[in-house]
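Table S2 (text version). Query chain:
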Amino acid sequence: MSRFSSLAVFVMVLAGAAQALRGGLVSYDATLSGPGESPPNASPGTGFAAVDYNNTAHTLHVHVTFSGLVGTTTASHIHSPTAMPGTGTAGVATTVPYFAGFPIGVTSGTYDNTLDLTSASSWNPSYVTANGGTTTGAETALASSLAAGDAYLNIHTTVDPGGEIRGFLEPVPEPSTLALLGCAALLIARRRR
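Corresponding structure-token output:
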């Protein structure tokens, strides 16, 4: 086996080990804005969402901060799946009309909660029905949608009932994997010299 092949195998094994140490946790984030809506709007509101999906614990940790909304909040949830990643609209996957404990009637705020994906109360009943009629089917569908980039977090308001700000959830590379890939790139560059 060539030195380059050995290095590639080594990096892949380290990356796999790093993922195993994290367990089944996959992180996603989104920048929320009015221009990110469909159709786009001119809201000056902004927000950020960080979502951690744990396929071992069957949980979805949702952290959202937002400010500058024109209307007051009426709903917030994750929609899934759109026909194409990063564009379009979809039905609501998670709790309707809003996440339990989400701040309603405000123009700015913070939300931090963990959803138990084995509980029917974490889901929109129609999403469960559309995905095999079980919370397991709903979880599998949402996990696939998150991985495919066709799920988004939306905040609806009195001014924009269809959604004032939203953002598509995108995977966040794990720091140790990024470090390993950086090391591999340096070693490959050194090898070429």
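Notes on Table S2: Residues 24-173 form a domain with the Immunoglobulin-like fold (CATH 2.60.40). The two ends are 20 Å apart (CA to CA).
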